[in-house]
Amino acid sequence: MPVDATRRAWLTDLPVLLVALVWGSSYLAAKDVATTRTVLAVLVLRFAVVLPVLVVAGWRRLRALKGAQVRAAGVLGLILSGIFLLETYGVVHTSATNAGLIISLTMIFTPLAEARLTGTRPSRSFVSAAGLSVLGVLLLTQGAGFSAPSLGDLLMLGAAVARTVHVLAMSRMRSVRGADSLSLTTVQLGGAVVVFALLSTVPGTGSTPWAAAADFGAGEWLGLLYLSVFCTLFAFFVQMWAVRRTSPSRVSLLLGTEPVWAAVVGIALAGDRPGWLGLLGALLVLAGTAWGRSAATPRPTSVVEPAEPDRADPGLEPAGRA
């Protein structure tokens, strides 16, 4: 590859890697901002900051959505709200390291679920990679000794399953195929915020958004803005920019380093100490997901197949990981 081409590739790759780093750090940021009583309030406030920017940025394309596309995006928004609820409650009850590594099992669950739906059999190498990842999670959640997984670990496992459902729903809903991704993301996040706002009014579910906002100090507001501006807006627009300058597979591969950064941030900044069993489990999760991603990627053939422009690319849909 010529020097100029290599430089251009790196100039595209670095922002995407930064997104992976930001996402990896988002678990610690959410853990620092949210408590059991303020999860719903934090979610409402986080996306209330984001939505106006998305609406203004994509107003013309948002108005061009058809009724069926809006309804489908609304359904996806309900699933998305479940993902964020499980993730945020989960990270409150577990370590940032565990959260980032367990959620990476989505990369294993999605191809397995898709194979089940399509009636195809995954390769032996992929099944082996999946088994390695599951073993890694079992070791990771034990820390220094064997015990029952924590509530947070189980919630993050549920979030990984919910992400899989979201990805498969996006790829199989005909009404959203070919629709503008920014508009779909805006509608989904809008639907999710409505769910969070309604749940926050139910007695016993914790602080209301305005009560939580009044109690936040400077640290909580900085963490909330970090989640809103960097983990959502910045990440979304970098993906949109990068996928036009490189291949979807390359972007997806770079974003797949998120669990690595989650582990690094959790151990370096949060003082997570997973113990030897946990460290071994973390390595197995990373190895298993990397192996599984490679095994699930179709090998190129000598015949160039026409692209499917209406098929959603699960690795690049920002709504699933806003």
From TrEMBL:
Topological category with respect to the lipid bilayer: Multi-pass membrane protein
Transmembrane intervals: 40-59, 71-89, 95-113, 125-145, 151-170, 182-201, 221-241, 253-270, 276-292
UniProt entry keywords in alphabetical sequence: Cell membrane, Membrane, Transmembrane, Transmembrane helix
Residue ranges of domain EamA in the record: 14-141, 151-290
Annotated localization: Cell membrane
Keyword check for rRNA-binding: no
Keyword Endoplasmic reticulum in record: no
Region (Disordered): 295-322
Family designation: Belongs to the EamA transporter family.
PANTHER family cross-referenced by the UniProt entry: EAMA DOMAIN-CONTAINING PROTEIN (PTHR42920:SF5), OS03G0707200 PROTEIN-RELATED (PTHR42920)
Protein name: DMT family transporter
Organism in which the protein naturally occurs: Streptomyces beihaiensis
